[in-house]
């Protein structure tokens, strides 16, 4: 049976690949996004995840079209990189408001629907740097690390209602953003990865598909790395 799957930030990168994978899986896919074009078959509502009222209104709009959200893929995120001593309060707070509090706003609203359905799959898109740390990304690492605690707390709160909550932790993935690093920089990073290559967005999408499937109904509060062995699960 087709499920209503909502993927935040499905207009580009990992979010786009995930949305396309769920469309191919036969699900009804929607997104909350800020701008850009969407994959074929994906319905969108424009909203900023830092605005609670806008998030709730977007959910209402999309659920009016497709029924209650049964799968949430919380992917929307930003970076504001900089060394700790030079990082402004604004750069730290903005990243946390989008990546962490924005995810919270979406999860809170989705759980409201999932509780009524007595079924739900929540997949939070974290990052290997949330587990390992990374120079120049104190804000981003903190925001992604916190998603693990969120997923595990959600699991303990609503796990008895047929709802699971997990984290996918991608490593270096080939996207438009990493393409800007330059060939030499990519080679340097790839040399540190046991798989000796960057991952593909399709590989992250495959992990999200699994965690959202009935086959993963007994998997909750877990962190699934998709990083070529870079983080070794930590």
Automatic annotation (TrEMBL):
The keyword Oxidoreductase applies. It comes from the Bacteria. Keywords: Oxidoreductase. GO terms for molecular function: 3-oxoacyl-[acyl-carrier-protein] reductase (NADPH) activity; quinone binding. GO terms for biological process: fatty acid biosynthetic process. Its EC number is 1.1.1.100. Pfam families: adh_short_C2. It is an enzyme of class 1 (oxidoreductase). Gene3D superfamilies: NAD(P)-binding Rossmann-like Domain (3.40.50.720). SUPFAM superfamilies: NAD(P)-binding Rossmann-fold domains (SSF51735). Residues 3-171 form the Ketoreductase domain. PANTHER family: 3-OXOACYL-[ACYL-CARRIER-PROTEIN] REDUCTASE (PTHR42760:SF133), SHORT-CHAIN DEHYDROGENASES/REDUCTASES FAMILY MEMBER (PTHR42760). Belongs to the short-chain dehydrogenases/reductases (SDR) family. This is 3-oxoacyl-ACP reductase FabG. The lineage of its organism: Bacteria, Bacillati, Actinomycetota, Actinomycetes, Micrococcales.
């Amino acid at each position: 049976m087709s499920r209503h799957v909502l993927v935040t930030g499905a207009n580009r990168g990992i979010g786009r690949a995930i949305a396309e994978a769920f469309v191919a899986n036969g699900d009804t896919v929607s997104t909350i996004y800020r701008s850009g074009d969407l994959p074929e078959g994906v319905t969108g509502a424009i909203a900023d995840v830092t605005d609670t009222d806008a998030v709730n209104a977007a959910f209402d709009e999309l659920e009016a079209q497709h029924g209650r959200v049964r799968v949430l893929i919380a992917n929307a995120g930003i970076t504001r990189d900089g060394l700790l001593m030079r990082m402004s309060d604004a750069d730290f707070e903005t990243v946390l408001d989008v990546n962490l509090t924005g995810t919270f706003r979406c999860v809170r609203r989705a759980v409201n629907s999932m509780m009524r359905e007595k079924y739900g799959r929540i997949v939070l898109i974290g990052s290997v740097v949330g587990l390992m740390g990374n120079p120049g990304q104190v804000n981003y690492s903190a925001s992604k690390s916190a998603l693990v605690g969120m997923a595990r707390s959600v699991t303990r709160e609503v796990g008895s209602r047929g709802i699971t909550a997990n984290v996918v932790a991608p490593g270096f993935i080939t996207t438009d953003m990493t393409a800007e690093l330059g060939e030499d920089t990519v080679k340097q990073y790839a040399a540190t990865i046991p798989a000796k290559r960057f991952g593909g967005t399709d590989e992250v999408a495959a992990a999200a598909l699994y965690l959202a499937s009935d086959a993963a109904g007994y998997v909750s509060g877990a962190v699934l790395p998709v990083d070529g062995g870079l983080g070794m699960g930590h």
